[in-house]
Amino acid sequence: MRVAAVVARLIGWLLTPFVVWAASFLGAWLALGVTREVTNPRTALGVTFGLALVAGAVTFVFWRQVLRHSPRLRKSLQVTDEGLPDLEIIADPPTESPPPPEHPA
Fold it and tell me: Is residue 76 part of a domain?
């Protein structure tokens, strides 16, 4: 069960950058379709980079709004409303500890 909790926390922490990366990749892919007719490669590259940057930024803002308005999602992913890892969970050690073993005299 402990392994599943660690994996769930890791996925939650990596979800925000992954969503933004995927959106920027999609924006670049769409820009390549738009710039197919452009003859200057530097212009095509600039448009592709610009659209990827805009798509990533817009998605990041949208994802932060989703996290801010959904406490349940934040708790499930164990992130703050900015999408950053909730470090308070890491800083607090577990309160329960196993009792020390008893040695026969």
Answer: yes
